[in-house]
Amino acid sequence: MQQASIKQLEAFWWAATCANFATAAERMHLSVSSLSKRIAELESALGQALFDRSGHRAVLTEAGERLLPATLNVLNAMAALGRTLEAPARLAGHCRFGVGDLSALTWLPAFVAAARLAHPGLSLEPCVDVGRVLERRLADGELDFAVIAGRSSRSELLSQPVGAAHFAWAAAPGLAGADGLDAKALLQQHPLVTLPPGAGTTRLLDDWLLASEAAAQERIVCNSWGAVAGMLRQGLGVGFLPAHWVGALGLRALRTAVPLAPLHYAFQWRRGDARALIAAMRPLAQARVDFSESPAFAGAAQAVLASASVSLPG
Questions:
Q1: First vs last Cα of the chain: how many Å apart?
Q2: Exposed/middle/buried for 279, CB within 10 Å: 0-12, 13-18, 19+?
Q3: Checking DSSP bridges between strand 239-242 and strand 167-171, what pairing results, if any?
Q4: Whole-prediction pTM value?
Q5: 3-class SS letters over the chain
Q6: Residue 192 pLDDT more than 90?
Q7: Are 226 and 196 in contact (CB under 8 A)?
Q8: Is the pLDDT score of 297 beyond 60?
Q9: 135-152, pLDDT tens digit by residue?
Q10: CB-based contacts of 87: which residues, under 8 Å, 6+ apart?
């Protein structure tokens, strides 16, 4: 039996753990044909087929399933060896990562600036979406890492806590009842303005409603924190925002018998991804994730104020 090369094992691991060969090839900066060639060479060296290509998409054979954990051990060992022998190097290439809308409005610009300063040869592509979508894209291999609310429940992902956001219930001062009623009572009279179910705040909201024995009679759902803040300023309903936004936007902080719990965020990456990219980005994110005192907050506040002045259709 011939010996397998590290490049062949890398191609096999990415192809086996990404959603498809096209995604795996993109993550390795290869064409699909080059990726397939490396896998075919590995199969020839081992004398066994690693993928069943007879269906709509290639799936691992029994031999491929057996080889996967051993491949991961080899790649991790090689990565560890490289970190031991080499001085820290500047990264190059392309990095696609995911963040939520609140991150994009607060700490993301400072993180991108720090990453570009440390690794000027690295091209950064932030993708902004709700946590559920980002977690799926990360598991499929479309993203290198993501900073998402909560720890992942997916076995193929790893999580490291990096920060927390704190929220407060708010309403426009002119909203009927806002000067005397608490958030629970106001939800009986006005719509709840909130993010969609796929957002990281979903469990936070559900836990508060349960603990407060409250219910939202009507909801206005939008996947933008800026739009949520704008609709609250227009007096369209009741909602919660990052605590330091409430006063800055001229909103009234509402009384609650049960405070909103903080929302913890985690740096998430794919299990077995021992690349230098992950090792370098994790501490950079840890140092920059700050939802309360971000240098970008002044610009974010202006954007929120601008969105509040736009008339809503219908």
A1: 71
A2: middle
A3: antiparallel
A4: 0.77
A5: CCCCCHHHHHHHHHHHHCCCHHHHHHHCCCCHHHHHHHHHHHHHHHCCCCEECCCCCCEECHHHHHHHHHHHHHHHHHHHHHHHHCCCCCCEEEEEEEECHHHHHCCHHHHHHHHHHHCCEEEEEEEECCHHHHHHHHHCCCCCEEEEECCCCCCCEEEEEEEEECEEEEECCCCCCCCCCCHHHHCCCCCEEECCCCCCHHHHHHHHHHHHCCCCCCEEECCCHHHHHHHHHCCCCEEEEEHHHHHHCCCEECCCCCCCCCEEEEEEEECCCCCHHHHHHHHHHHHHCCCCCCCCHHHHHHHHHHHHCCCCCC
A6: yes
A7: no
A8: no
A9: 999 999 999 999 999 878
A10: none
CATH code of the domain occupying 92-164+263-303: 3.40.190.10
Question: Domain 167-261, what fold?
Answer: D-Maltodextrin-Binding Protein; domain 2 (3.40.190)
Q: Are 169 and 185 in contact (CB under 8 A)?
A: no
The pair phi, psi for residue 248, each rounded to 5°, is -60, -30
**204 near 259, Cβ under 8 Å?**
no
From the number of C-beta atoms within 10 Å of its C-beta (0-12, 13-18, 19+), residue 282 rates as middle
**Paired tokens of 120:** 């000027």
Q: How many residues does the chain have?
A: 314
Asked if 92-164+263-303 and 167-261 have one fold, the answer is yes
Give the position of tokens 């592509």: 125
Please, what sign has the CA dihedral across residues 154, 81, 25, 148? positive
Dig out the tokens for 53 from the structure: 């290509």
pLDDT value, residue 124: 96
Q: What is d(CA 234, CA 307) in angstroms, rounded to the nearest whole number? A: 10
Position 289 confidence tier, pLDDT thresholds 50, 70, 90: very high
Each domain of the chain, given as residue ranges in start order, spans: 6-85, 92-164+263-303, 167-261
pLDDT for position 220: 97
CA distance 300 to 297: 5
Helix axis angle, 62-85 to 6-17, nearest 10°: 120
Pairing relation of β-strands 157-165 and 263-270?
A: antiparallel
